[in-house]
Amino acid sequence: MNGSNVEIDWEAARNANRQNWDDRVPLHEAAYGLDAYDEPTHISDVVSEDLPVLNRFVRGGTLAELDVCHLQCHIGTDTISLARAGAIVTGVDFSEPALQAAEALANRVGVSATWVQTDVLDASNVVSGDFDIVYTSIGTICWLADLDRWAAQIVALLRPGGTFFIRDGHPALLALDEGAQELTTRYPYFGDGRAQQWDDESTYAGDGKVAHPRTYEWPHPLSEILGSLLRAGLRLLHFDEGRTLPWQFSPRMVEVSGGYAWPEAERNLIPCTFTIVARRD
């Protein structure tokens, strides 16, 4: 049953997820509209939405000449977009094919970037240097079992005074039945250490199928997300909740400016995203 809670070793779950994300690379290369990046000023919709918020919390109000580490960067479209906003970027991901695609795209469009293959939960042991900004967005932490370990990596990567930014799918949204004809809770909001097992040949972008359809995700309530960052020593600067998503979570969602949203009558009933900005003092 999709979404069923199972006991599984982290390494086994991670390897299954990595195989699935490896399979997604050619599908997403075809579906992400990469030709748009041949235009030197083009940046992704995700970064277009994140930049106005992020810029409020960095010196000078711009990413120019700041060192940015992008965790879980996938095929690099958002990393390249951060570079076009002026940042000196390092993209981190556990998928070798994804990083190969990212490097090929960056080279093709003339963007300088460093690419590092590692699990996000080990990033500080592999990525060299420290950073003004650690950035992650969107659809990221559901793939991680241990948020305290995740937050520790972020703190270790940031230099003193550095800023962490995340926008991600709201855990209240992720608890909903995506196929129901009304807003109905189906999946756990609070985690219990077990993973949610999924078997799905499709992906959120493109029409192709993956060869390794089984994946594992973990529910994380807002209290756990915020708590992990605070326990790691970060100071909360900003928290917000949004009404739109960059992907169609449910077939009932409608396309709007900035992505997808619930039908207008339901739009104020449930958040779609959360945004957190925090700082290492």
Automatic annotation (TrEMBL):
- InterPro entries found in the cross-reference section: Methyltransf_12, SAM-dependent_MTases_sf
One of the protein's GO biological processes? methylation
Q: What UniProt keywords apply to this chain's record, in alphabetical order? A: Methyltransferase, Transferase
UniProt domain Methyltransferase type: residue ranges:
71-164
Q: What is the top-level taxon of the source organism?
A: Bacteria
- The membrane spanning regions, by residue number, are none
What is a single molecular function from GO for this protein? methyltransferase activity
| Classification via PANTHER family | METHYLTRANSFERASE, METHYLTRANSFERASE DOMAIN-CONTAINING PROTEIN
This chain belongs to the protein called 2-polyprenyl-3-methyl-5-hydroxy-6-metoxy-1, 4-benzoquinol methylase
- Recorded source organism is Microbacterium foliorum
